[in-house]
Specification:
Helices cover 50% and strands 2% of the residues. The chain is built from 14 helices and two strands. The chain has a two-stranded antiparallel sheet with strand order 1-2. The longest helix is centred in the first third of the chain and has 29 residues. It is globular, with a radius of gyration of 23 Å. The termini are far apart.
Length: 330
């Protein structure tokens, strides 16, 4: 009899353990990102974000590239968790003043406006990290690029890391090809993903301080292109020259298309790291393909954006849903 009751309690303990495992498993699998994450909790999230992005881009087309870049710089530092949006506080220094970000990331006001409109629609539901993912997609679409279904369900970090942002995870504009390949590989992105994502440089601008060495010192650059850029970007360092800007894509700077790759083939890449993609190395054939075939570029770009959006998201009970994207909730 005693033996029977022991086996009975053992089997019920086992059942409890199995149930607990099942609960944990369903919780973690339901925490996976999905395209319909807000379909019930905030059905108007997409139209709300899009209207703000649309209006920002119509006032200043450069905002599209800036929003796309925020998502990229966010995801590469400790995952897609909205940490890039946090202002410095007495207890931590955020990522805004890190080398790759300082003076080169913008559009924070656009994110603020999106967040306040979304909060009116459905308070405390949509994360800032998800807003960045949606705004990046909308920017590409509005500027003539492909559309895709964004996976959502990320949560916001409660801290940011200046040291992580400075650690070299975001490839600098002086990168060699192997450096670019390795930085992306470390984030689970292939060489093809890297070349496709670099096509985001078909929109946006860069400051003289970022491309000065290339236009005055590099040999793998079209000479008339270098001269054109030198007219706006003086050889001597210092202000105001350092902050003079030039389009990353000379041909169609406000259209999301494949001209970035066509420019590389003519040695008209503005950044040293851009021209590395077509410089007698392993990625030349991909650049050539994308320069001739917009459809393949678009489909590879979309796949890479979705993969990038999957980098280490916070989910379940991790992080929080910030009320204000610039600061952690009380």
């Amino acid at each position: 009899m005693a033996a029977h009751s022991t086996s009975h309690s053992a089997s019920s303990s086992l059942l409890i353990v199995l149930l607990a495992v099942l609960v944990i498993f369903t919780r973690s699998s339901s925490a996976k990102l999905s395209t319909n994450f807000y379909s019930k909790s905030c059905p108007k999230v997409f139209s709300t974000v899009q209207s703000v992005v649309h209006s920002a881009i119509s006032k200043q087309p450069r905002q599209g590239a800036s929003l796309l870049r925020l998502h990229f710089h966010d995801c590469f530092v400790n995952g897609c968790d909205g940490s890039i949006l946090l202002d410095d506080t007495p207890t931590f220094t955020g990522e805004k003043t890190a080398g790759p970000n300082n003076g080169s990331i913008r559009a924070f006001e656009v994110v603020d406006e999106i967040k306040s409109k979304v909060e009116k629609e459905c308070p405390g539901v949509v994360s800032c990290a998800d807003i960045l993912a949606i705004a990046a997609r909308d920017s590409v679409k509005i500027l003539g690029g492909p559309k895709w279904d964004v996976k959502l369900g990320r949560r916001d970090s409660k801290t940011a890391s200046l040291s992580a942002a400075n650690s070299g995870v975001i490839p600098p504009p002086t990168s060699t090809l192997s450096n670019l390949i390795n930085r992306f590989k470390a984030k689970g992105l292939s060489t093809k993903d890297m070349v496709a994502l670099s096509g985001a440089h078909t929109i946006g601008q860069a400051r003289c301080t970022i491309f000065r060495d290339r236009i005055y010192k590099d040999k793998n650059i079209d000479s008339s292109f270098a001269k054109t850029r030198q007219n706006k970007c003086p050889k001597t360092t210092g202000l105001p020259g350092d902050n003079k800007i030039a389009p990353l894509d000379l041909q169609t700077p406000t259209a999301f298309d494949n001209y970035y790759y066509k420019n590389l083939i003519k040695q008209k890449g503005l950044l040293r790291s851009d021209q590395q993609l077509f410089n007698g190395g392993s990625t030349d054939s991909l650049v050539k393909k994308y320069s001739e075939d917009t459809e393949t570029f678009y489909s590879d770009f979309v796949n890479a954006m979705i993969k990038m959006g999957d980098i280490q998201p916070l989910s379940g009970s991790s992080g929080e849903i910030r009320k204000n994207c610039r600061k952690v909730n009380n």
